[in-house]
Amino acid sequence: MFDIERWQEIFDAIQKNKLRTFLTGFSVASGIFILVILLGFGQGMQNGIAKEFESDASNRIGVWTQVTTQEYKGLNPGRPIQLKNNNYQSINSKFSGNLEHKSPFFRLRNVTVDYNNESGSYSVQGVSPLFQNIENQFISQGRYLNYGDEESVAKVVMISNKIKRELLKGEDDPIGSFLKISGINFQIVGVYGDKGGDREEDRLFIPISTAQRVFNGSDNLNMMFFTLKPSSNFEETLAKSIKFTEDIKSYLREAHTVAPTDPSAVNTFNTLEGVKRFQNLTGGIKFFFWFVGICTIVAGVVGVSNIMMIIVKERTREIGVRKALGARPWAIVGMILHEAIFVTSVAGFAGLIFSMGLLEFVGPSLQVDYVLNPSINFRVAISTVFLLIIAGALAGFFPAWRASTIRPIEALRDE
After folding, report:
1. How far apart are the C-alpha atoms of 185 and 391, rounded to whole Å?
2. Interatomic CA distance for residues 107 and 84, integer angstroms
3. C-alpha span between 393 and 97 (Å, rounded)
4. What are the residue ranges of helices labelled H in 159-270?
5. TM spans, by residue (predicted)?
6. What is the largest CA-CA distance in the chain?
7. Which of 359, 387, 381 is nearest to 298 (CA)?
8. Any long-range contacts for 86-90 (C-beta under 8 Å, 24+ apart)?
9. Which of 46, 88, 138, 262 is least crowded, fewest Cβ atoms below 10 Å from its Cβ?
């Protein structure tokens, strides 16, 4: 039942102690504000890091070689190790049951790209049709490279949306047109886009067989790319990918007579390991943010408790009179608790509204490396406020209970 006299008492007490009430509420509001902002930035970091990995398949594994650094079986260090088509085919045959997507990779050196009277500096790379899935590319126009192109050593090329804008000057339908790579005509069969944005669209793609035969690449490869079939959970998928990379290294070291302990000759990267590292990093940062935010809130709750103790002390004689007139202990407790809950609730929701409003309006336009659209789950935020209100009630309960147990005669003698 609504007790208007009780609320009048609360507002009268607040009116008499404006500064004290404001400072108490400010400490509570600032605690919620800091917690929400920190959690928002934690989520923003998670979003930003996820965006960095979005440009490629999250389980991509790359393989490349350099020179040996150790003597092995009578062979001197400093030997360049060259990947070959038969290495790629052997890996496909040996691990076919685990592979999801795969592609050899050959980069053309010192090539020019011309279209009509326009010329541009772009990277030209020979790949297989499945490279689209490894790079998370999408088709804007036409089609991607296919196995027919690879088998027939077709002079066809994929261009990007960026190259279409820059080199073709935004030509509406470039499919079927020809551009020149180092003076050789290639027919445009498709236009692709990349989720990584313009920085990933400075490349043209031609069939791997065409890159090797037309541009004197023999059977050499620069890299090999693979993705594995996902397992039931992340940890299992990660373990399987780590074992796969170690197996590839062992095979290539044996095939090219490289010392098993040579750290440089055969190299791999595994994006899942990067994902795991960043997950651990963001998890640690979010834990730290929670810790700082909760400590700030606890400081606010302690402030509420101290203020309630001061209020009880100031109103000791009043409490004695109320008890002498027959007030029950729980009525005294309720009187003190209402004020604590009211101040905590108003301050908590004020901090919540201000912090979420700031994230809503400033977050989407914030430009910070590895931070993207900082935000917080509303249920988490509102649950935090209700927990704060409960904590504020507990903070006020103990001084209130102490006041309710004071004997009237002792309260009336209080100075």
Report:
1. 74
2. 14
3. 61
4. 161-166, 208-214, 234-255
5. 21-41, 287-312, 332-356, 376-398
6. 107
7. 387
8. 86/219, 87/221, 87/224, 87/252, 87/255, 88/221, 88/224, 90/251, 90/255
9. 138
**Among 141, 172, 184, 185, which Cα is nearest to 159's?**
141
Q: Which amino acid is at 260?
A: P
Burial environment of residue 294 by CB neighbours within 10 A (0 to 12, 13 to 18, 19 or more): middle
Distance in angstroms (rounded) separating the CA atoms of residues 11 and 376: 33
**DSSP string spanning 53-94?**
HHTS-TTEEEEEE-B--S-BTTBPTTPBP-EEHHHHHHHHHH
Residue 228: helix, strand or coil by DSSP? Answer: strand
DSSP reduced 3-state for 160: strand
Kindly provide the residue ranges of all beta strands, DSSP E only, lying in 350-412, ordered along the sequence: none
pLDDT in tens, the chain (415 residues): 456 666 676 677 677 777 777 777 787 788 788 888 888 877 777 777 666 555 544 678 999 999 999 999 888 999 999 999 999 999 999 888 888 899 999 999 889 999 988 888 899 999 999 999 888 889 999 999 999 999 999 999 999 999 999 999 878 899 999 999 999 999 999 999 987 777 788 999 999 999 999 998 889 999 999 998 877 777 787 888 889 999 999 999 999 999 999 988 999 988 877 666 666 777 777 777 777 777 777 777 777 777 767 766 666 666 666 666 666 766 767 777 777 777 778 888 888 888 888 888 877 776 666 667 777 777 877 887 787 777 777 777 777 677 667 666 665 555 5
Cα separation of 24 and 29, whole Å? 9
Close Cβ partners of 345 (under 8 Å, ≥ 6 residues apart): 389, 392
> In this structure, what DSSP letter does residue 216 have?
T
DSSP class per residue in 316-336:
HHHHHHHHHTT--HHHHHHHH
Q: Dihedral (C-alpha) 163, 165, 171, 174: value to the nearest 10 degrees?
A: 20
Which residues, 6 or more positions from 170, have their beta carbon under 8 angstroms from its beta carbon?
A: 164
Task: Return the structure tokens found at 106.
Answer: 């050959």
DSSP 93-105: HHSTTTEEEEEEE
* Measured distance CA(56)–CA(200) in Å, rounded: 10
Following DSSP, what letter does each residue of 9-30 receive, concatenated? HHHHHHHHTHHHHHHHHHHHHH
